[in-house]
Amino acid sequence: MKLYGIANCNTVKKARDWLTQHDIAVEFHDFKKHGLSAELAQRWLQQSAWEKLINRSGLTWRGLSEQQKLAITGNAAALQLMLDKPSIIKRPLLEQDGRLLHVGFDAAAYGEIFNL
User: Fold this and answer.
1) Of the residues 3, 9, 40, 72, which is catalytic?
2) HEC secondary structure over the chain
3) Among 18, 37, 51, 82, which residue carries the largest CB count within 10 Å?
4) Fold observed for domain 2-113
């Protein structure tokens, strides 16, 4: 099981704290330290809509020009944006054996995923 995100992100911290409180071990992959491969981002885009993977309420999105925002109309453009600016990805992403289990953090959803 792997959790992807950025260590100083508050939502990632909440997810990691929740996992620790429930004695669930996960490997953490920090985009800032370990990067993001095109293969990984493409795999997520095959499993989830780009609209769900791109955080359109965060600072990174708000920092884009209107032209840049309007250019994101499909997976190819979303993939390039994710690779150029990994901070744009909604965090955290919970994955197991290559399968994306959840985008973002919700305690109830995590409870269901882990049968708690």
Assistant:
1) 9
2) CEEEECCCCHHHHHHHHHHHHCCCCCEEEEHHHHCCCHHHHHHHHHHCCHHHHECCCCHHHHCCCHHHHHCCCCHHHHHHHHHHCHHHECCCEEEECCEEEEECCCHHHHHHHCCC
3) 82
4) Glutaredoxin (3.40.30)
